Structure formats: structure tokens, C-alpha cells
Amino acid sequence: MAKIAIDMMGSDLGCEELAKSVKQYLSESTDEILAFGAKSKLDKLFDGLDRITIVDAEDVIPMEIKPLDFLRRKDSSLYKALNSVKEKKADCIVTAGSTGGTIIGATFLLRNVPGVTRAGICAPFPTRVKGKACVILDIGANNVNTPEDLYTFAKLGRLYSQEVLKVSNPKTYLLSNGVEEGKGTDEIVQAYNLLRERNFPGFEGNCEARNVLDGNHDIIITSGFAGNVFLKATEGVASMMNQMIKDAFKHNIFTKIGYLFARSGFKQIKETMNYRKYGGSILLGINGVVVKAHGNSNAYAFYNAIKVAKNMVEADIVTKINEAFYVG
């Protein structure tokens, strides 16, 4: 049985939407929930439910915050939720709140695993192969990374792919502007050399952005700035294509009839590319399980984010990362 800390206050859709996720999760598991937020609201939302403890915390960490300001806001829901993991009162934390605040708080309160130069935000992306995800990191924890950071991300991504996604021998690539050796920025070229020199298992070289989601790539390593641009560009293109397809089928009576014949295929495509089923991103390399759901996560997406956190706890991923980076 796991104890899961939930930051109820940071969501764009409000704590009412997150409460739906928590109720569904509790109905299907034997785990316990620590819900951090305004007690006056949460008491009403969770009235009569077992296995849930409400911790009063009305302060909300804003989207942009400086490290010292975060550390001063000890009464915020995010600070208290992260601190519950630090104090071993909870096994993991799930939040849809401030990404910057989550990274700052996790770094200061939980600390990096010894040997991890930089923690990275990892996320499984849907691919054209049904049921297969591509792990990409970092997608926004850092703006600038060193070659050694990228090597660290490769180790973290491989552990996540093996232990959580159960890929026995994942193939790892560097995101670059060409597949040839020597392509990319200085840090990409140097990271390429590090991975080759150290015989990193499963390293296959560079990958161009257009091939990342073709189903043939298990892990993509990138600096946080480029990874975040890739993430948002992918979301934007997917949204645009979805709307263009809808508009095309609404054009006239014949296109509407055509949709009736094709809708099962489009339904399958929509399900394959539904990022909400993956729940959230994971801050890997921290001494604790930290899952960051999208700010506008609906009940389905946040429910899946809670499941991601539970899977990470069951995989004992933090212990395995500590073992992998231990230098005796």
C-alpha cells in the first residue's frame, strides 16, 4: 500500500476536477491519499471518503517563482506536499501546479541522487506503433546542459525504460539536426563522444526530430531547452492536424458521408496519440518520486498521473537510480 501526496491547488481546472481523479483512484486501489489544499474546499469534496487525509494549505505557488521565494512559502500546498515525501510521510507526490516551483522544491527539499549532475524531466510520448512509447528527456527542467548532463539523462532514461516501461534493451539516441556523427551543437557532439567512449549500452547515435515518434526509437536524449521546444511543437502540430481533419470532413455532405466510413480509423488514431493516457512527466534523478501533470489536466489525465506515481513507487525506481549512480 502506497501513500500518495496530491497537490490539489495548482491545477488550471481547479481542485474540483482533481478531486474526480482522486475519488476514482481510491475506488480502485487500497492506497492512501494525502490531499494538500484549502481544507474548507476539500472537506466538502471528499466528505465521507476513507483513506484520505486532508492537510490544510491555502497558499498556491505561482507559475514563475524564484528559489528563495519558494523556500519562504512553507504554507503552500506544493511545499507541504513535497516536504511530506522528504519526511517519509508519503511515498510520492503528484502535482499539476507550477513546473518551476516543482523543480525548485524537489531540488532543495529532496535533493539530487548522489552522482546525478542534473535531474531531468522525463515523459513517455505516444508513437505511431500502438502501445509503444518513446521516452524523451530532458523536456524542460533545464535551459542549458553540459555533455555530462546528457550522459546522465541517458542513464536515467534507460533505467526508466527498463524498470517502468519494461523494455529489456532500449535503444538510445541523441536529438540532433542530422543522423551523422558530428552533427549538432557542441554539447550534442561531445555527448555523442562520451556515449561512444564509455560504450553506453543500446546507444544508436543521432536522431532527427521528424523520426522521433516513428516507433523505432525507445529513448531520446536532449537538452532541456530543445526538449521543451520539441514537446510544445509536437502538441501544436497534433492540435492543428486534429482541427484540420475535423474541418475537412465538415466541408460538404460527401465529406460527412466519408467520415462515417473512416471514423473507426480516426478513433484509433485519436486513442494512439492521446497524451492524457500517459498522465504526466517525471522528474528523474531526485531522491523521491515526483510526477508533474500538465497544468490543464482533466480528471482522466490526472488519474493517470497518479497511476504513474504508483508505478514508479512499485518499481522502486529511486533505489535503482541510487544504485546505478553509486560510486563506492
Describe the protein's architecture and organization.
The chain contains eleven helices and eleven strands. The chain has helices at 15-28, 39-45, 67-72, 77-86, 99-110, 147-163, 186-197, 224-249, 253-272, 299-314, 317-325; strands spanning 3-7, 32-37, 52-56, 92-95, 120-126, 133-137, 172-175, 203-207, 219-221, 280-284, 289-293. The chain has an eleven-stranded mixed sheet, sandwiched between helices. Strand 10 (280-284) and strand 11 form a beta hairpin. The longest helix is centred in the C-terminal third of the chain and has 26 residues, at 224-249. The two termini are 32 Å apart. The model has no long low-confidence stretch (mean pLDDT 89).
Brief description of this entry?
Helices cover 45% and strands 16% of the residues.
- Let me know the largest β-sheet: 11 strands, mixed
Mean pLDDT: 89
Oligomer: single chain
Along the chain, the helix and strand elements come as EHEHEHHEHEEHEHEEHHEEHH
Ends apart, CA distance between termini? 32 Å
Give the radius of gyration: 21 Å
Strand order of the largest sheet: 3-2-1-4-11-10-5-6-9-7-8
Report the structural category.
alpha/beta
Overall outline: globular
Count of alpha and pi helical runs? 11
Helix content: 40-55%
* Total beta strands: 11
Low-confidence stretches: none
Quick tags:
single chain, 328 residues, alpha/beta, 11 strands, 45% helix
Topology:
Blueprint: E1 3-7, H1 15-28, E2 32-37, H2 39-45, E3 52-56, H3 67-72, H4 77-86, E4 92-95, H5 99-110, E5 120-126, E6 133-137, H6 147-163, E7 172-175, H7 186-197, E8 203-207, E9 219-221, H8 224-249, H9 253-272, E10 280-284, E11 289-293, H10 299-314, H11 317-325
Parallel strand pairs: 1-2, 1-4, 2-3, 4-11, 6-9, 7-8, 7-9
Antiparallel strand pairs: 5-6, 5-10, 10-11
Helix pairs in contact: 1-10, 4-5, 6-7, 6-11
